[in-house]
UniProtKB/TrEMBL annotation:
Coiled-coil intervals, chain numbering: 95-122
Keyword Coiled coil: yes
Keywords, alphabetical: Coiled coil
SUPFAM superfamilies cross-referenced by the UniProt entry: lambda repressor-like DNA-binding domains
Domain HTH cro/C1-type, chain residue ranges per copy: 7-63
Top-level taxonomic group: Bacteria
Protein name per UniProt: HTH cro/C1-type domain-containing protein
CDD domains: HTH_XRE (cd00093)
Length: 128
């Protein structure tokens, strides 16, 4: 999953528009974010840093590398608590990632099985 995909998922999970997301980052218009989302430009370090400062609940490892959950658990307080809806989104995303990994493992397993079958056939052919 690309960083553009993760940003799109984040905006959807925050349930805000791209323009509202951009404005929270200090942008007057949403063009920069739209360009990033459509792959016309990569997010710069300062943009990623702003995202993590403006949305402290966002897991930096997830945003940068796609590792872990979208939202991190913060110290429990009324203003920083992760909502049940955010936790459900995290679980849905985690299940999505697990399904992708399972599919990749299944594909690798199938390839290995085919290679073993070919090797067995070669050994049988050479022995006979």
């Amino acid at each position: 999953m690309t960083i553009e995909d993760r940003l799109q998922q984040l905006i959807e999970a925050l349930d805000i528009s791209v323009l509202e997301f951009a404005r929270k980052l200090g942008e007057r218009r949403g063009e920069k974010i739209y360009h990033i989302l459509h792959g016309r430009m990569k997010p710069r370090f300062d943009t990623l840093q702003k995202i993590l400062m403006v949305f402290p609940q966002v897991n930096g490892d997830w945003l940068l590398r796609g590792e872990g959950l979208m939202f991190r658990t913060l110290n429990p307080s009324p203003t920083a608590a992760i909502t049940t809806e955010e936790r459900l989104r995290n679980m849905e995303f985690l299940l999505f990632q697990l399904n992708e990994r399972m599919a990749l493992l299944q594909q690798t397993n199938d390839q290995l099985r085919d290679e073993v079958a070919e090797l067995k056939e070669r050994v049988t052919t050479k022995a006979g």
